[in-house]
Write a structure and sequence with these properties.
- The chain has two helices and three strands, in the order H-E-E-E-H.
- The chain has helices at residues 2-27, 79-93; strands at residues 45-51, 61-66, 71-74.
Length: 96
């Protein structure tokens, strides 16, 4: 009877640990599956989030929030995206 209780406790602990591991794995992944490389007006962009590469993802991710509330992943290698990032960085370092 004691050995069966011990086995049940071990199985319960293993199940709890595996559920926790699933949650952690879900957090350690890229947020952008596809990226938009076609240019559009930066006047549509309300905010840009730049996520550096790290253990969660091997590539830099750029997520734009449009004024409509839509989130779009931008291609960090596209020239127009680099121009937008550069202008936003320049604007934030030289406030009016």
């Amino acid at each position: 009877m004691n050995s069966s209780m011990a086995i049940l406790l071990l199985l319960g602990a293993a199940a709890a640990l595996s559920r926790g591991a699933t949650i952690n794995r879900a957090e350690l992944r890229c947020r952008c599956i596809n990226t938009e490389s076609k240019p559009f007006s930066n006047k549509q962009i309300a905010n840009i989030e730049l996520i550096p590469h790290g253990p969660h993802c091997v590539k830099v991710e750029i997520i734009a929030t449009l004024k409509s509330g839509t989130l779009i992943c931008l291609d960090p290698e596209a020239k127009w995206v680099k121009r937008i990032i550069h202008s936003m960085l320049h604007r934030s370092s030289n406030p009016k």
